[in-house]
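To whoever is on call:

I kicked off a structure prediction for a single chain this morning and the downstream step that reads the tokens threw a length-mismatch warning. I double-checked the sequence; it's 305 residues and nothing unusual in it as far as I can see. Pasting both halves so you can look.
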Amino acid sequence: MAKKSYPESFAHPRYWLTWLGIGAMKASAYLPWCAKLWLGRGLGELAWRFGKRRRHITDTNLKLCFPEWSEAERARQVRKTFHANGIGIFETATGWCRDPEHMRDRVTFKGQEHMERAMAQGKGALIVGIHFSTLDLGGALHSLFFPADVVYRPHDNPLFEHFMTRARNRIFGIAIDRHDLRGVVRRIKSGHGVWYSPDQDFGREVSVFAPFFGIDAASIKLTAKIARMTGAPVMPLMFHRNPDNRTYTLEYLPALDNFPSGDDVADATRINAFIEGAIRKHPEQYLWLHRRFKTRPDKTDPSLY
């Protein structure tokens, strides 16, 4: 993989606010847990009150995916989603900036035997994660049990990208740019587990349309493509914060059988069904702030947002 290039110095004034943000993240990682929860809910509440656009996107997503909810229930879930994502900022800071060992007694690991069986095949593994607010903390806690690389989207700010990549490289084996398909395939073929999350709308060119909560959604084809190129087992992974807001559960399901099938729509439908099932257990922890149904099957279809 090509070595990243960064500016010679991050001392330029344009990076001062970024440095302040990084310092705040590092400091917040060491706060008492109750303080992280309180501050996280507070940030989420502010975002809910003043983030009109994101509030509209979240409300639209929940209206589409949970039509059985009353308007009052949906409003409660929108607010809870913002609170969960506010807490997620502090969970991310904890995952990036602290040794995950200090969290070992907070995590319950289920299905460990499925991952052990998959890795014993010697073909590596493609780990399918989900964009919950707990994502980066989940990666840190996962490292207590299994090593893994991670596929990620580079940040536009070079300093924050540098900080984020170093943090993720500490947690994972390496952080791989999502456009570096060769790097992903090479690591899996070398026997590594690679974690990536295929649950966002990456556009028409790389997707097929498959049902997600009963709605045709642009669903990335890469899961099946990587599995086909590597022969690696595809491992569904769920991770969430428990109702006590202090502990977490990380669970592997058995490797997908007969995957890929050769039918991209059928394969994407299976992945979406797994993701949907995980979301239904803890809907407020999902990243509903993302325009999941941005790309429509027909280019002339009106926007859902």
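Update from on-call: the warning came from a stale cache, not from the record. Cleared it. Sanity check on the structure: The beta strands are 107-110, 125-128, 149-152, 175-177, 193-196, 207-212, 215-220, 234-241, 248-252.
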